[in-house]
Amino acid sequence: MQFPLPKGGNGSGAVPKDNPNGHAGALNEGLQFASAFSTLFTFLAYVFPILGAYIADTRLGRFKTILLGVTIGAVAHVIMIGGAAPSLLKAGKGLAPFIISFFTLAIGAGIFKPNVAPTVIDQYTNQRPAIKTLKTGEKVIIDPERTIQRVMLIFYAMINVGAFFAIATTYTEKYVGFWLSFLLPGIVYFLLPFLLLGVYKRLVIKKPNGSELTNFFKIVWASLKYNKFQVWKKDYWAVATPSKLAERGIQVTWTDRAVLDVQRTFEACVIFLYFPIYNINDGGVGAVQSNQGASMTNNGAPTDLLGNFNPLTIIAVAPILSYGVYPLLARYGIKFGPIRRMTFGFMLAAISGAIGAIVQWRVYETSPCGYEASTCDDVSPINIWWQIPNVALGAISELFCNVTAYEMAYARSPPHLKSVVMSLFLFTTALSSALGEILIPAIVDPHLIWVWAGPAIALFAQTIVFWIRHHKLDDDVYMLEQETPTQSQAQLTQTTDLEPGQEKVVGDGEKA
Description:
This protein starts with 29 loop residues before the first helix and ends in an 18-residue tail after the last strand. The strands form two sheets. The protein has a three-stranded mixed β-sheet with strand order 2-1-5, with no helix packed on it. It folds into two domains: 1-47 and 62-123 and 176-206, no CATH class; 131-164 and 268-512, MFS general substrate transporter like domains (Growth Hormone, Chain: A). By secondary structure, it is mainly alpha-helical. The chain is globular, with a radius of gyration of 25 Å. Helix content is 61%, strand content 3%. The protein contains 19 helices and five strands. It has helices at 30-47, 49-60, 62-83, 86-90, 95-122, 144-164, 166-175, 178-190, 192-199, 210-226, 242-247, 256-272, 275-279, 288-294, 309-331, 338-366, 388-411, 418-439, 448-470; strands at 130-133, 139-142, 296-297, 380-383, 493-494. Residues 488-512 are annotated as: Disordered. The chain crosses the membrane at residues 33-54, 66-89, 95-112, 153-172, 178-200, 344-364, 384-408, 420-443, 449-468.
């Protein structure tokens, strides 16, 4: 989107072989256009999950909704590949098919996004703490929190195995053309329907329950109505309980437990409101990271190469956390609950944003064009590999923030609202994109240092508030399906066999 077709190139977006520091391009719409539309794409891809969750929870169920989203995405890939044909790009007619495919892909992705993670965790059916007697006679507790934590780490790592293949597309766009860059992921994508149908009979499939979702919205409305929209009132949710409504002469079909489910669901969603500022620190705003790379010496590397090292970092670090750090902390009785993990991740992201600002400052200081580096034909002598610390810390922060948020979206929502709550978490990324759109006018030289530094400072301040307000949630019960609202009252169930992948939690304080 940002750069024109390279002079002397092959007409498909690739650079000529004698210009290794050149930029692949085709549409020549500039940095602000590229930032605005890439941000808009992200916004749509994380708004449509609300629709995808509604369809799944009330109509089709999660699995069929995933199939629907995948099918829409496949159509988008076909249009995108065809729209990158050299003849269209040379004729200056590549923008329309690209934008159509761009937004169609966002819709397809948005429909299946909120349903994948809940479907994965649904396969783990024993979601309460359970006592297991080992062959030695020792009794230990099977901890669902650690099991789901590991499941989500593996799930997130697998997402990034797929994302890591994008490195191949950064090279093909620069040296072959965009048609091949779009075709490579398209080939993999077209296999998805066959994969899904192949595993269908082996999956635990949850059916939609539209009536429960209807009750959810009725409880929310009753709480708003009878509190006169004063959402800050003490015991806010109590007015929606059947007994309180009966005092008003109103009979309802839901139970006290249903009201508690809604209350805890919104508690989880409040946690998600801290993510918009976090997200704009993870890789910067819009296309600013790719633009920074384009202003640096790359010695033949694509300008957006380093952004694609994000998944490589996640693939490398996820097993270290899952099989090394977290078990070690548990062995020594160090509690590293979801709020502590997210607080640590937020701090890493703030440091990442600060490093991005420092690198941008050095680019300005060393560029032949000074503080007009983004539009300069020459590049700074600073090597593009100096983006690695920013990329790596941002990627590691995702394992503490995004993975934990996936866990909480599932664990702290009732069965009939898992996809809806997941979509509300994903919607925070859409809010980040909306915030990014507001910042688009500032994404110009010579202000790019503050495009990095401003969000980093905001995130640092927000993290302090986050810890002060929510650190006590680490002591709350983990799974919402528990019959009781506090950890001290939670009951253990007896079991004789472990399911595959279940953790054995052994410690002096945990022996039955």
